[in-house]
Amino acid sequence: MSVVSLIEYADASAEVRAVFDDIMTTRKVDSVNNFWKALANHPATLRQVWEEVKAVMAPGALDPLVKEMIYVAVSATNGCEYCTYSHTAGARAKGMTEEMLGEVLAVASLANKTNRLANGYRVPVDEQFRRS
Amino acid sequence: MSVVSLIEYADASAEVRAVFDDIMTTRKVDSVNNFWKALANHPATLRQVWEEVKAVMAPGALDPLVKEMIYVAVSATNGCEYCTYSHTAGARAKGMTEEMLGEVLAVASLANKTNRLANGYRVPVDEQFRRS
Amino acid sequence: MSVVSLIEYADASAEVRAVFDDIMTTRKVDSVNNFWKALANHPATLRQVWEEVKAVMAPGALDPLVKEMIYVAVSATNGCEYCTYSHTAGARAKGMTEEMLGEVLAVASLANKTNRLANGYRVPVDEQFRRS
Amino acid sequence: MSVVSLIEYADASAEVRAVFDDIMTTRKVDSVNNFWKALANHPATLRQVWEEVKAVMAPGALDPLVKEMIYVAVSATNGCEYCTYSHTAGARAKGMTEEMLGEVLAVASLANKTNRLANGYRVPVDEQFRRS
Amino acid sequence: MSVVSLIEYADASAEVRAVFDDIMTTRKVDSVNNFWKALANHPATLRQVWEEVKAVMAPGALDPLVKEMIYVAVSATNGCEYCTYSHTAGARAKGMTEEMLGEVLAVASLANKTNRLANGYRVPVDEQFRRS
Amino acid sequence: MSVVSLIEYADASAEVRAVFDDIMTTRKVDSVNNFWKALANHPATLRQVWEEVKAVMAPGALDPLVKEMIYVAVSATNGCEYCTYSHTAGARAKGMTEEMLGEVLAVASLANKTNRLANGYRVPVDEQFRRS
């Protein structure tokens, strides 16, 4: 179905297996999702994306659940089916309720609407919003 | 600069003034931003958008700061200059630090990147992500 | 300001002048907009785009004003500043009132909102919408 | 298939049934589409979106068919599968012919093309397009 | 499945058959893809798009493979399933290896990421990037 | 002008200076662009993005000029003003001629057009484009 073959652990190179192992250990799961099996076709991208996801999605000034909900809002905005399914599942696993999902999508869809009203009317930015 | 004239309170109809008054009262400010002065060219849209913003951005299952940060992430994704400036200012007013803004944009830009990797490889959605 | 120099009629090649002449004759104006002066840097694109615009925007099953309003809705959706200004001006020249512009943007922004609700909830297409 | 369960009338709360009843009465149909069954997971959004659709898509300075065609053009621009199917069906129900659909998509796709030429060359907006 | 019927050669008008014949002759194939069968519902668009594709994708200052890879990068950015599949196949037919596809998507996804960082921080354009 | 202050070398932390130094050494320049001065507000993002840009844009299966042209095509598609200016300048520094830029934008804008025709008609993917 995808434009590349999904690479299973059994068929993966040592380089790819090392990343798959780190994903499974970090997430405490016994297999990796199709996204990683597809990226395995380009090991450098697989490693770089996993390292970035691990660092960016970790607890910081924002907690992991808030980060997952921002991910869902952006993925819905871009119409990415895969990321919408996977990050909605990820946010639920971190505690997102149906009510919270409803609010994430209400805010994201409102933003998409007002973004176009601001762009359609070409509203000039208020001076107080600009930093001196 | 905008494609429509910005309607000032002094020149506004009673219908528009009623919305401007509610915005100023609700937000405890003594003037409205350019966005509302532009929407005032179509009173029905001005009223509808304000009522929706007031309801959707209010405290709920998500707190107002989280909602503003989702708004910033979506506005940056769509490249809306006006909304990025206004909602970044709004999120700061609600307590967003520079570190938090850095994480909002790190997550939003990572999502924009992986959305394209998933779409470029056309990764099939894992069965466990679909609800029965 | 642009990433290419704008080519003025006086400095244009015969090939470019021929297109500029057709634009001015067809539109009954005595100069061409910056868009065409920029495309003049790649004559094949200048000619192809002008021929397409002339054919697609001509009266057909839809009248030219409806076509210009669709152009405004798409340009606002994509956040294209230049096209939003130029096609809003074009629609007004063909009779679009402020009330009509208000409705064009109300519909376009509502569509941008519901597009994200449908994509965020991944709503399955109803069978009756698919053609046998 | 969707990330939420579709809520059927038989399983809906009184609050949701009231909106479903109004949709069926207003549209003279005996069931609601999947979009509304998905939004029913967040009743406040279901009510708000339905009220907005009912008001914005009603006859005004633009007739309902023109509004539906603008909706199709925006949905195709955003790549929203659900909205493209549902609003193409809605426009046909209001009288859109295959020739008209062909022109809607010819204009929308041309706008998507010239939006990128204007953005790629960063064409400066002509002074006459800006309002004093 | 599509919102229009796919028009097969046997059912096509002489006008449509002439374009189908040119596509098959130019590409040395004995049938046309679904994209062209769908466009055949609006013959003027079918002819215009085919003439444009034939001219723009031909060898020029850039070779056809580079053009196909740019097409893949844009289609993945827009999330167009059909164009991603068809142009990835087209690029492979012209010599794109899996390693090259991996780099095309690594660059395209990085660009999508930095586009949002630049838009989220609203970074001012450096003077040296603007032409005098 | 930006939503954050641009951090100059003189005011930068040792962590930020280390990245600025590597950018200047790698690119053989004596200052860094505004993009990096803005990212310096979030050092982790500054370092991560620079390391990724350095790795992804390096010579590989694709040469750096082709990569820069893909970057321009994606940035124009997303309407990112900053990235369009900076990567068009970067591509020119690597040898892109005006004719090549013209072809990059002709291909990118054509892709944006056909992406919407495929999405608007919801064209089903041809079986031969899918991998078994």
UniProtKB/TrEMBL annotation, chains A, B, C, D, E, F:
InterPro entries: AhpD-like, AhpD_core, CMD-like. This is Carboxymuconolactone decarboxylase family protein. Residues 43-123 form the Carboxymuconolactone decarboxylase-like domain. One of its GO terms (molecular function) is peroxiredoxin activity. It comes from Paludibaculum fermentans. PANTHER family: CARBOXYMUCONOLACTONE DECARBOXYLASE-LIKE DOMAIN-CONTAINING PROTEIN, SI:CH211-175M2.5. NCBIfam families: ahpD_dom (TIGR00778). Pfam families: CMD (PF02627).
